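Postdoc handover notes: sequence design on the structure in folder B. Input tokens:
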């Protein structure tokens, strides 16, 4: 069972669809839900034949489109536990809007070519429509009302048609737009500073690439806010010319860096081109010649041819039909192609190396090695054989992710669900850098070991042709010849695949033998290294012992040198600087001592003189009848006492200096 399904491919063939019932299936069992589908009915009648459905990313709007009309349905909210509409009602009525009903339904010339939601719309409510009159029409759903915002002319308006047909003269010559797609957003030079300052995403410019039937591509920048008037530029210069008999029918822009544009033709040819900026000098030259020259160019690096119908004979297959391309959001380098003959899966293998080269991590890698990698186109579902006219076209296609699976509806009413096995290539192991002594002749063994082994096996097992799932039309009525041819084709494909297995087995055996030889050689090297390890260990022990002995001798020599230095310094003829300073200090102290001695001698003489004077004074006083007053006697006693204290302090200092100078 599937979670949801949207028709994403124009309906071909003569199948009849219910005009007013759009069926959605949910991942529930019949016991849990009671039924497997819900009916969503638009309130407005569908007056045209529905051909494809388109839903926006938020799941709020659904477009029912046909060549003669466009109906936009507002989807109701989903409710838990299973996310059903309107609590799982049997019939859910949706509010609807018809876009330019009078213009599209009443006109026999103007037809709808392609409808897409504008990725720059803030609410996913802007719709861009390409019509057969070379016009892009922009609509918006605002406040539950459909509004026609603008119309952009991308070429001349078809005037006349061929008699008895609805094909215009311009469409016959391929000068009418058949498809368009949005590129990656860009910053305009005028709004770049505003965007970097305010992070205003409305200033982003979304380029639209319009494909014409003759293969030419035009570009126009259509903003969602309608603040600037866009201009059409083109056609984009291409390095390849399309065959006039080829009719382009579909275009997609992959989300890669650089951008890759894929253009499909109705004969099964798909061109892969990179979108590059034109140099300023060349652009100025082209603009002088053509005013509407685009600033970008398409560099085609590869073209592949799809097998439209399973080939059972060696005759050329000249079957042509419209091809529609669908992006795979899980892998940017892969997309799907649907057509009346089945479904193809296309993988562009060079994108990974190209992105690495653009980022500058492998500057030495030449560009030729990158583009020499061929893309892989796998035929998944076949609905037609080349020898039969019976077809069972794909009328609905959708992708389901995690894991990636495709879901398609065939014209006979069958629903096909197919899982896509993605064998991602593991990160490459670092290459063994073995120095070549000679460097003249490259070694095959080195080359074999340098290339990743899984890549070689994948190249060997890659099938040039595969056997798709057969869903042929004709209600199972096939001739015996056709069945026999199908059996022969299947047996041939499997026989070639078995041959690839045999080559892969031989490669594995070579690899095993080479690895065994390398293992034996490495084992011998390990033994030699172990022997050298033991020898080195013994040498290390001997060197450690010698080192210890030398260290002890060195310590002893250092001590002896220190002693010799002390002795030499003691016996030196001239004193050292510290000794000279010490002698100077001693001389100073000696001078001070001599001064102190002189002062002390003078004091002693004064004391002796004073004693004599005192004795004389006493003798005179004794002779005197009157005695000395008490005040004079006290004064003399105090003076003598102070003098004796000073003498004692000086004697004490003199003794201290003698002790310091060791003069005792």
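Designed sequence:
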């Amino acid at each position: 069972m599937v979670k949801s399904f949207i028709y994403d491919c124009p309906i071909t063939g003569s199948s009849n669809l219910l005009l007013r019932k759009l069926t959605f299936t949910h991942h529930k069992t019949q016991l849990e839900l009671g039924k497997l589908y819900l009916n969503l009915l638009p309130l407005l009648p569908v007056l045209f034949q529905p051909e494809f459905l388109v839903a926006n990313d938020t799941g709020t709007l659904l477009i029912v489109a046909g060549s003669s009309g466009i109906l936009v349905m507002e989807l109701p909210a989903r409710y838990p536990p299973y996310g059903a509409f309107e609590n799982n009602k049997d019939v859910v009525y949706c509010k609807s809007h018809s876009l330019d009903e009078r213009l599209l339904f009443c006109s026999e010339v103007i037809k709808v070519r392609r409808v897409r939601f504008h990725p720059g719309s803030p609410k996913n409510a802007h719709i861009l429509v390409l019509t057969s009159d070379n016009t892009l029409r922009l609509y918006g759903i605002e406040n539950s009302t459909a509004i026609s915002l603008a119309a952009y002319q991308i070429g001349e308006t078809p005037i006349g048609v061929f008699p008895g047909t609805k094909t215009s003269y311009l469409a016959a010559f391929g000068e009418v737009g058949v498809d368009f797609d949005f590129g990656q957003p860009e910053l305009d030079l005028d709004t770049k500073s505003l965007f970097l300052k305010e992070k205003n995403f409305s200033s982003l410019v979304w380029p639209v690439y319009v494909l014409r039937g003759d293969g030419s591509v035009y570009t126009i920048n259509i903003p969602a806010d309608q603040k600037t008037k866009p201009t059409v530029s083109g056609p984009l210069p291409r390095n390849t010319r399309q065959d006039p008999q080829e009719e382009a029918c579909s275009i997609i822009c992959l989300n890669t860096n650089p951008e890759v544009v894929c253009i499909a033709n109705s004969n099964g040819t798909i061109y892969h081109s990179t979108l590059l900026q034109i140099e300023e000098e060349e652009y100025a030259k082209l603009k002088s010649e053509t005013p509407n020259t685009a600033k970008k160019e398409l560099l085609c690096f590869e073209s592949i041819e799809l097998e439209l119908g399973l080939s059972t004979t060696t005759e050329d297959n000249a079957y042509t039909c419209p091809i529609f391309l669908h992006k795979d959001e899980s892998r940017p380098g892969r997309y799907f192609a649907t057509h009346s003959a089945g479904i193809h899966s296309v993988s562009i293998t060079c994108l990974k190396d190209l992105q690495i080269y653009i980022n500058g991590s492998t500057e030495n890698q030449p560009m030729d090695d990158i583009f020499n990698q061929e893309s892989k186109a796998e035929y998944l579902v076949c609905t037609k054989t080349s020898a039969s006219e019976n077809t069972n076209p794909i009328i609905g296609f959708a992708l389901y992710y995690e894991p990636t699976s495709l879901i398609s509806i065939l014209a006979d009413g069958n629903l096909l669900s197919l899982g896509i096995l993605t064998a991602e290539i593991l990160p490459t192991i670092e290459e063994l850098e073995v120095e070549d002594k000679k460097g003249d002749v490259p070694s095959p063994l080195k080359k074999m070991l340098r290339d990743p082994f899984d890549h070689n096996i994948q190249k060997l097992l890659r099938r040039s042709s595969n056997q798709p799932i057969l869903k042929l039309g004709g209600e199972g009525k096939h001739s015996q010849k056709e069945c026999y041819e199908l059996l022969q084709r299947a047996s041939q494909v499997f026989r070639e695949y078995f041959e690839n297995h045999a080559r892969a087995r031989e490669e594995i055996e070579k690899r095993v033998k080479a690895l065994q030889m390398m293992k034996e050689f490495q084992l011998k090297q390990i033994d030699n290294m172990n022997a050298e390890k033991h020898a080195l260990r013994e040498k290390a022990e001997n060197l450690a012992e010698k080192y210890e002995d030398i260290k002890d001798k060195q310590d002893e020599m250092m001590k002896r040198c220190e002693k010799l230095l002390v002795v030499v310094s003691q016996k030196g003829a001239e004193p050292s600087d510290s000794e000279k300073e010490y002698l100077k200090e001693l001389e100073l102290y000696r001078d001070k001592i001599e001064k102190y001695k002189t002062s002390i001698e003078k004091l002693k003489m004064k004391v002796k003189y004073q004693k004599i004077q005192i004795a004389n004074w006493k003798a005179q006083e004794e002779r005197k009848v009157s005695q000395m007053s008490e005040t004079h006697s006290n004064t003399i006693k105090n003076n003598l006492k102070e003098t004796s204290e000073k003498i004692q302090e000086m004697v004490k200092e003199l003794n201290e200096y003698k002790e310091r100078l060791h003069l005792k």
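Context for whoever picks this up: The first helix runs from residue 30 to 33. Don't rerun without checking with the PI first.
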